[in-house]
Amino acid sequence: MRQRMLISALLVLVSVMAGQAQTAEVVAKLIRATERLQLRTAQVDSIVQTITASRTHRHLPTAKAVYDFRLLDTTHTTDRLTGLGTEASPLDIAQQGATTGQVLRWSGAAWVPNGINLYDVVTTSQTVSTEVNQVWIDTLTVGITLNLPPCNAANDGVRFEFIKMGPDAYGVDIEPSGSEEFSDTQPTKTIFSPNMTFACTCRYTGGVGRWMYNSM
Q1: d(Cα 145, Cα 123) in Å, to the nearest integer?
Q2: Is residue 198 within 8 Å of 212, Cβ to Cβ?
Q3: Where do the domains of the chain lie?
Q4: What is 117-215's CATH number, 2.60.40.1930, 1.10.8.420, 2.60.120.640, 3.40.50.720?
Q5: What is the gyration radius of the CA atoms in the chain, in angstroms?
Q6: With contact defined as beta carbons under 8 Å apart, do 155 and 130 qualify?
Q7: CB 145 within 8 Å of CB 125
Q8: Are the beta carbons of 156 and 108 closer than 8 angstroms?
Q9: Per-residue pLDDT tens for 140-197?
Q10: Which of 141, 148, 110, 106 is nearest to 126 (CA)?
Q11: Under 8 Å between Cβ of 183 and 208
Q12: Model pTM?
């Protein structure tokens, strides 16, 4: 009788120990399966990927799950880029209104198109576009006014050259935008003589924009 009781007790002990071992193994697997996975700068709590018999690539399930997650993940961009980041639609720099010959210039907040030796020929009053660098004034029959664009953070460093190529003696007034001034605090500069060049550059600092200038 004592032997039977001893054998029964041993069987119970072995069963308990086996159950504990199985529990420990399951917990260990659970920890491994729920660890946080970090992919570059993106963090995810879990990635679930079903492996079926039809998949013959023999990739490890974890590697396949990570591949599918990154392949199907959404790429967020601004309107300064075009494309979807796929083979059929690769990412590229958007035109952003740029014209032939322009280059990118840092505005202090973003990359924007800027003129490089692009020119315009004018004979009437108008506001000068930041897309050009040179403004040629052709023969005039009356004086005109050319208004500069705002000298702000976006246009800091923008430079213009005004060249009077007509033989007339009519004046060309060059005026900053709104209440802005030239570096000598004057609101207007005027050129009369043929073949005269007037250059100015926007300098924006301390929240104030002024046009530095030079006459040649």
Answers
A1: 10
A2: no
A3: 117-215
A4: 2.60.120.640
A5: 36
A6: yes
A7: yes
A8: yes
A9: 999 999 999 999 998 898 899 999 999 999 999 999 999 999 999 999 999 999 999 9
A10: 148
A11: no
A12: 0.53
Greatest distance between any 2 Cα atoms in the chain: 132
Write the Ramachandran bin of 117: left for phi over 0, alpha for psi from -120 to 50, otherwise beta. Answer: left
CB 151 within 8 A of CB 209: yes
How would residue 212 be classed by pLDDT, with cut points 50, 70 and 90?
A: very high
Amino acid at 161: E
Give pLDDT tens digits for 110-124: 777 765 667 899 999
What string of H, E and C letters represents the secondary structure of the chain?
Answer: CHHHHHHHHHHHHHHHHHHHHHHHHHHHHHHHHCCCEEECCEEECCCCCCCCCCCCCCCCHHHHHHHHHHHHCCCCCCCCEECCCCCCCCCEECCCCCCCCCEEEECCCCEEEECCCCEEEECCCEECCCCCCEEEECCCCCCEEEECCCCCHHHCCCEEEEEECCCCCCCEEEECCCCCEECCCCCCEEECCCCEEEEEEEEEECCEEEEEEEEC
By residue count, the chain amounts to 216
